[in-house]
Amino acid sequence: RDLHTAYRRQRQMCIRDRPLQHMSSMSPLIRPLRSLANGVGLAWWARVETTGPDVTYWFGPFLTRKGLEAELATFLEDVGSEQPQSIRHTLLRTRRSEPLTIAAEG
After folding, report:
1. Per the omega criterion (within 30 degrees of 0), is the bond before 32 cis?
2. What is the Cα–Cα distance from 66 to 44, expressed in whole angstroms?
3. To 10 degrees, what angle do helices 2-17 and 65-80 make?
4. 57: Cβ–Cβ under 8 A, 6 or more apart, which residues?
5. CB 87 within 8 A of CB 79
6. DSSP assignment string, 70-96
7. Which pTM was predicted?
């Protein structure tokens, strides 16, 4: 499971940061702004919960809800490729830290 968690986190970051490749002049500013927004609880996150397996994924942080919504479909598709029984998500403005992938014990 530890390998799965590390792999999933890397995939989350790749999907999240993909749009930054098109904004090369702004990308040095985006990461510190995301970190600041997250630190004060103003960042946007998606809490994605699956059953079969029972896992909660936190996808973010994003500066805007629109930015999160723009990348969420790709992340949900990636999670769906693991063929869970169900997937549901909630968009939240909150502060998060590791772990961002939480598997139910048992």
Report:
1. no
2. 9
3. 140
4. 8, 12, 47, 48, 49, 50, 75, 79, 100, 101, 102
5. yes
6. HHHHHHHHHHHTT--SEEEEEEEEE--
7. 0.78
| CA dist., res. 66 & res. 28, Å (int) | 20
Strand ranges across the sheet with 101-103: 86-94, 43-51, 55-62, 101-103
Q: What is the mean pLDDT of each run of 10 residues along the chain (106 residues)?
A: 58 64 58 90 95 92 92 91 94 92 80
Q: What are phi and psi of 60, to 5 degrees?
A: 160, -165
Please answer whether residues 46 and 58 qualify as being in contact, where contact means their C-beta atoms are separated by less than 8 angstroms: yes
64 three-state secondary structure: coil
Helix (H, G, I), strand (E, B) or coil at 51: strand
